[in-house]
Amino acid sequence: MKIVIAPDSFKESLSALDVANAIEQGLRQVIPDCDIIKIPVADGGEGTVQSMVDATGGSIISLEVMGPLGLKVQAHYGILGDALNTGSASSASSIDKSHQHGAIAVIEMASASGLHHVQRSQRNPLLTTSYGTGELICDALNRGIKHIILGLGGSATNDGGAGMAQALDILLLDNQGKTLPSGGAALANLAKIDTSNAHPLLRECSFEVACDVDNPLCGARGASAIFGPQKGATPEMVKQLDAALAHYADVIARNGIIDHREHAGAGAAGGMGLGVMAFLNAELKPGVEIVMQTVGLADKIRGADLVITGEGRIDGQTVFGKTPMGVLKQAKLQGIPTIGIAGCLGENANAILDHGMAAIFPIIPHLSPLDDVLANAKLNLCNTARNIGAVLMLGQR
């Protein structure tokens, strides 16, 4: 029996590889000789770097960059390994493979420019910058990387990717020819964009951007109105930031760059969606599709008797591009039954059953405090997988 285990992480508890290992451990208690392939996956959000590094035997690059408020923070990104077409994932290698031409880098914007870097009392999108994300991109380019996957989300910024652009030596100037200061508010004073001295390796690199929102740059559904408040914006600040982003888009268009302000996803991550399209010539795609394609999920599940996927919570939102839904779609194309395992089941969790999932299982055996649930996640996963394996063996008799 061939079983493919392709889960996302269980947030605040287990990485995707840890989840896959626990499921394997449970299955082998009752099906010791089954052929198991583990493929840690993600949907482009938090945990994507670790999942893809684990799935390919890659490596993590850590470095100090500018945080959202201009202070230094520790950040990281991943270099995918050469195990894209091998049978099973292993832990990420500590060996630096990053100077191999043709390698792929995976960057999460939140690692450098995330909201977690800013204390709640200091959150101010008028001032926060995406410069650190640009530094991660710059480091990858300097290592010879020519394909970068960038995950948006979790940012503390509303600067339209201006800081990222500045880190890549794209000049953003005011009417006096001076460099714009950091932050979303400064965009109101943008007069000129000079790309003549941009990082020379940008042209040689292709960018895929994982983006799972469809918000435009400005307006009632724009970056400032929808995402600004969670980053510390007051109603007055939202109006100021929205006007600044609109002006920013006007100047971008006047400088001969395609105007993407109404493009679905332009407002993602405080307008970073617009920034990556304007300055990186990037294509926005659903995160789960990028991850599945990159780790070669379709090839790895071929011939499987069963696929097991999962995430920390399966609910009615899971069908809208979350990892279990992405895995299910790939398995359905090959007629392979799929089972979902979750830390818990939320409202409308059965929606995924209507899309063809064979069954879904929560792992929590009884009501417990959250800290206990998180601490016992590995054991509960293992026990749930063991029971699933036992039922599978009954069906073989």
TrEMBL record:
Gene Ontology molecular function, alphabetical: kinase activity
Family classification: Belongs to the glycerate kinase type-1 family.
Keyword Iron-sulfur set for record: no
Name of this chain's protein: Glycerate kinase
Keywords, comma-separated and alphabetical: Kinase, Transferase
InterPro entries, alphabetized: Glyc_kinase_flavodox-like_fold, Glycerate_kinase, Glycerate_kinase_RE-like, Glycerate_kinase_sf
Originating organism: Shewanella glacialipiscicola
Superkingdom as given in the UniProt entry: Bacteria
Gene3D superfamilies: Glycerate kinase, domain 1 (3.40.50.10350), Glycerate kinase, domain 2 (3.90.1510.10)
SUPFAM superfamilies: Glycerate kinase I
Keyword Oxidoreductase: no
Gene: garK
